[in-house]
Amino acid sequence: MTPRVRQAPSVRYAPTDEVDFAIVGAGAAGGVMARELARSGFRVVVLEQGPYLRESDFKHDELLVNESHQLTNIPSLQPQTFRKTAAEKAERRDYLIYGRMVGGGSVHFTANYWRFHEQDFVDGTRYGPVPGTSLEDWPIRYAELEPYYTRVEWELGVSGLAGANPFDPPRSRPYPLPPLPIKPSGVLLEIGAKKLGWHPAPAPMAVISKSYRGRSACQHCGFCEYFGCEWKAKSSTLATMIPEAERTGRCEIRPNSYARRVQTDSRGRVTGVVYFDAQKREIMQRAKAVVLCANGAETPRLLLMSASNLFPNGLANSSGAVGKHLMFNGGAFAGGVFEHEVNGHKSVQVSRYVQDHYRLDSKYGIVGGGGIYMRIDGYPISFAMDALPPDGPRWGAEFKRMVREYFTRTAYALAHTTQLPQEASTITLDPELKDAWGLPAIRTTFTEHPNDMKLYQFFLDRTIELLDAAGAKTTWPFSLDAPWQVHLLGTCRMGNDPKKSVVDKFHRAHDVPNLFIVDGSSFVTCGTGQPTMTIQALAFRAAEAISGYAKRGEITKPG
Amino acid sequence: MSETPPGFHQSRRDFISLLGTTASATWLATIWPAAIADSSEAADAAQQGQAARYRVLTREQAEDFGAAADRIIPRDDAPGARDVGVVFFADHLLASFAPAKKPAFDQALGALNDAARKRVPGARSFASLTPAQQDDTLRSIETSDAFALLRSITIGGYFSHPSHHGNRDQAGWKSIGFEDRMSWTPPFGYYDRPEVMARLMPWRRA
């Protein structure tokens, strides 16, 4: 393989150049959109608020990624507020974490690539109205998305074993790469799951088990979650889609460009994006169409900041749904210590998973479900800080003894679950707090639905059960309260009814024909965790549709 | 003992108590590049056996913090906190990239010495107490923000990348069986050894 050296962008556009597409956000979705639209022959500028880092910038340094926020949003520059209900005044709290760099969250994520199942698109029908929720079916079905899941697997590089998980939805092609090697936590999961009558399978991971498309295979260094991959073995868009977009010669990735408004004209069409450059100068990039891929918090925020006389409640918000129905995925997790070395800090986080509880049997009276796997979840500092049993010693000789015994012998069982959409869970603009650019801070309003707390408790019981069945000497649960959240979903939901949704089934804003929204905000329901693969399948599908509109001259007026 | 058990996800990276409070974990962000750039200087001095010269800590503060750190992570058959340079880590932290946190650190040591004198009237300092008295003193403040800050800096200094002046010779990492490498090959631990899998997972042979 030939290492790609840092090079000047293959093309640069002047802001006054009217490009075909301005894309906001170079993450999981933006990377796919950029590559697909550029390959279709369009001139594309991608505005990314974060930096353009390369593999040589990544280090196995916990302080760098966790405390200096090398790869994620920076709370000192972009403070947030939080409240549980709209009746409260929001307080300063950095509740949301998201990727802020070229590649977005796909650079630091764990790389679990579970497809959604057929069921995930039709929970509205399955459960009917659930009080206090806005649960609905998607306007598309799994079968419509299946070809694009396959494209994600083959064009980004996903390792897995087709047919191994009996709950997997139908697929048109096997995985392009065999599963990564089983690791000790995977062995323990298989042992426990088999005892419980569950069906463990190799976990599908967006980490390449063999060299693929010019990238080298995973070397099992263990620094996947929260870290960037020095080997380019993690199939982030930074390692895959972005360089392919640039190689077309038609796509400019413009980092350190922080969008502040989508500009519209008197006819209600978008004309470009106004952003701050690295020197905080306001610049407008003109474009024939705009695609927002900024994530489930930044996208609705940008729409709300783009209010105008024509769009007084925010751009594309005649439905009032912009920022509403916020979901994160739920979960539960427990720890267990084993007799021998688990060494979860080596290799990818996850090698086996189970989906026997993808939707709970109706006898439990709980809506939703999830999947479970085992992994270790701490590098040395974070492990010593918080990963031991919460009722154990926090300092002293016994504390040190436990850290030394547990670090190599602990496995965690994690569940990732559904979470019900609620209209009252929102992203809005904080009326007082501003960020370092003077823009309104993100305000999150969120309370778990009572059903979901029951669901998380159900899964917490299963994680303990699994660790016990695997032979753990001791197990311990962690709190179900989430101190912060990732997976920002649902805030510009797709739907057929313009009164209740923000975009149509091809991600076009109902109110603005040349504005498209393609990221986690499009989700109607959140699936059982691991949303990135679905975000990217949607992006491949949207790019095909949008490319068609543009080629048929239907970008500013629907055909 | 923590009053609030770590929440979902929390153990994985949320060590905001490195600051001792929930105020903000963001103080490193703006000045981090500078911290990286000058990170080798004090470590070099220490490794060359030069007398400890601190940039912002007084000698008394270094002694009190070092004594507390050595009770938080005491020496056993692996080095204690002071052995691996956590005092240098703290000094560097407060001198280079977290000067705004110096007052909180000063207050924490003030609280530590107040507690020491409450425990042993007339005591000169926390560092002057016996180890047993030091443990009693720390126990009396272990739910406080002051203690949380001292604990966090100790753990940070013991386990962080050695470029930050602590974890000298990777002794903190070695003590728990962690090794920073760019590559591993299976088996990664005990349970994925072929003979162990053959025994524990008979269905794999089928």
Q: In words, what does this structure look like?
A:
The complex is a heterodimer of chains A (559) and B (206). Chain A has 559 residues and is an alpha/beta fold. Chain A has twelve helices and 17 strands. In chain A, the strands form three sheets. In chain A, strands 1, 2, 6, 7, 8, 9 and 17 form a seven-stranded mixed beta sheet that branches. In chain A, strands 5-11-12-13-10-16 form a six-stranded antiparallel beta sheet, with helices on one face. In chain A, strand 8 and strand 9 form a beta hairpin. The longest helix of chain A has 20 residues. Chain A is globular. In chain B, helix 6 packs across helix 8. The termini of chain B are far apart. The N terminus of chain B is likely disordered. Chain B has one domain.
Task: Kindly list the characteristics that best describe this protein.
heterodimer; A: 559 residues; alpha/beta; FAD/NAD(P)-binding domain; seven-stranded mixed sheet; six-stranded antiparallel sheet; 12 helices; 17 strands; globular; B: 206 residues; mainly alpha; 10 helices; 48% helix; disordered N terminus
* Weakly predicted, low-confidence segments of chain B: 1-42
Corresponding CATH superfamily of the domain at 14-57 and 93-109 and 114-157 and 236-322 and 486-559 in chain A = FAD/NAD(P)-binding domain
Could you give the order of the helices and strands of chain B?
A: HHHHHHHHHH
Strand content of chain B: under 5%
Give average pLDDT of chain B, whole number.
Answer: 81
The strand count of chain B comes to 0
Quaternary structure: heterodimer
Radius of gyration of chain A (Å): 22 Å
- Using CB atoms under 8 Å apart, which protein chain pair has the greatest interface? A-B, 78 and 68 residues
CATH top level of the domain at 14-57 and 93-109 and 114-157 and 236-322 and 486-559 in chain A? Alpha Beta
What is the H-and-E element order of chain A? EHEHEEHHHHEHEEEEHEEEHHEEEHEEH
